[in-house]
Amino acid sequence: MSLLKRLATAATALGLTSAALLGAGAAPAQAAISDCPSGYFCAWKTDNGTGTMYKTQANASTLGTWDNTFRSVVNRTNKFVCLYDDPNHGTDGDVYSVYPDPSGSEWGGPGSNSVSSLKFVVAERECAMDPYPVWHAAEAPKAAGFGDLDANRTADVLVRDKVGRLWFLPGNGSGKLVGSGGWNAFNALVRHGDFSRDGKEDVIAREASTGKLWLYPGAGTGSLGARKLIGTGGWNVMSRLVGVGDLNGDTRSDLVAVEKSSGKLWLYPGTTTGTLGARVLLGNGGWNGMNAFAGTGDLNGDSRPDLVAREASTGKLWTYPGKAGGTFGTRVLLGSGWNVMDQLLAVGDYDGDGHHDLAAITNSSYSSNVFRGDGALILYSGTGTGKFQAGFPETDSWWQLNGAF
Ligand SMILES: [Ca+2]
Ligand SMILES: [Ca+2]
Ligand SMILES: [Ca+2]
Ligand SMILES: [Ca+2]
């Protein structure tokens, strides 16, 4: 039973650990545990849920006479309950989270008499950090506004959280809610390009249940406008959708897609009306062997957008240089060891030197002398000649999210 888990707050300990924190293993006195009403968080001073019961539906900055007394708890709400050793939800001490359990079928204890405040949150990461991760980017006067939803020449990012909210990260460390929910209905989100032809970058989303493709026109502020159907169905036959910029050189942004059944790579050219035109075969097969993509924009200085892809079997990272005619030239090896990344992220020019860059979010296999485990953001500054500088571990706050775009 992993009822209680510690949230890592130290830079070197990302990820959940639970082993030492499980509660009392003895069967609860059913009558007492079931005294906790539906919709409440309850706690007892005993290890088996007997005796006087504490119950609340509200955040508590201090616990009064209950300070440092919780021994067993049950969370019959639909939110996470964060338990803090510090008062006022401080994160210097240990932080535990108790999973939503409306039926009250799981219970346990923090294993210590140290809880001094508690808080209800919808996403577990909010127990210890902002709902969105930290993103900083420099103004980039020389780069071409790629990865820039609010058109201020600072590379920005969209992040989806575990509860389906969408956050816009402008690049100054802050985050703005631009989608209040429902975004987990999509199993592909693509950006990097102005598809609607109004000069503002847009988002394309594939609806998992229907295979429909929707265009969410960017408002130029980081927010998205009313969606428009651009694909009536069938898009679930594609394993990957990637925004690549203008691959075929007609000034309109294009999409590439990998077909699940065949491993073929297709180009879907953007059209004058914001829809996608007749597809063109780019690759005859084998593209299912790639399990992460980034449409980074031009990396090698020929003004044509390039594509970065990771080979699943080897962990090698390859660049596919865009070439005249809207195809890709011979791939170039960028490096190996990339299987420790959960996701590649095309971020435009984050450091403002005029060259497109790359970011990656780590998975649990990642380890460096700065961060370990999942949820670290590593930045790779492009050289402008098709290469990247060594990765820079930027922050470990990209944890417990559901994708970045
Ligand atoms: Ca921007
Ligand atoms: Ca195009
Ligand atoms: Ca290029
Ligand atoms: Ca750069």
Task: Summarize the structure in words.
- The chain is an all-beta fold and 405 residues long.
- The chain folds into 2 domains: 33-127, Crystallins (Gamma-B Crystallin, domain 1, Sandwich), CATH 2.60.20; 157-404, Neuraminidase, CATH 2.120.10.
- It has 1 helix and 29 strands.
- It has one helix spanning 30-33, and strands at 4-6, 41-44, 53-56, 72-75, 80-84, 95-98, 117-121, 157-161, 166-169, 176-179, 186-190, 203-207, 213-216, 228-231, 238-245, 254-259, 265-268, 280-283, 290-297, 306-311, 317-320, 322-323, 327-328, 332-335, 341-346, 358-362, 377-380, 392-395, 401-404.
- It has a 4-stranded antiparallel β-sheet with strand order 1-6-5-7, with no helix packed on it.
- It is elongated, with a radius of gyration of 24 Å.
- The site of one calcium ion (CA) has 8 residues, from loops.
- It comes from Streptomyces gardneri.
- This is ATP/GTP-binding protein.
- Keywords: Signal.
- Residues 1-31 form the signal peptide.
What's the SSE blueprint?
Elements: E1 4-6, H1 30-33, E2 41-44, E3 53-56, E4 72-75, E5 80-84, E6 95-98, E7 117-121, E8 157-161, E9 166-169, E10 176-179, E11 186-190, E12 203-207, E13 213-216, E14 228-231, E15 238-245, E16 254-259, E17 265-268, E18 280-283, E19 290-297, E20 306-311, E21 317-320, E22 322-323, E23 327-328, E24 332-335, E25 341-346, E26 358-362, E27 377-380, E28 392-395, E29 401-404
Antiparallel strand pairs: 1-6, 2-3, 2-4, 5-6, 5-7, 8-9, 8-29, 9-10, 11-12, 12-13, 13-14, 15-16, 16-17, 17-18, 19-20, 20-21, 21-24, 22-23, 25-26, 26-27, 27-28
The protein binds calcium ion (4 copies).
Keywords: Signal
Protein name: ATP/GTP-binding protein
Signal peptide: 1-31
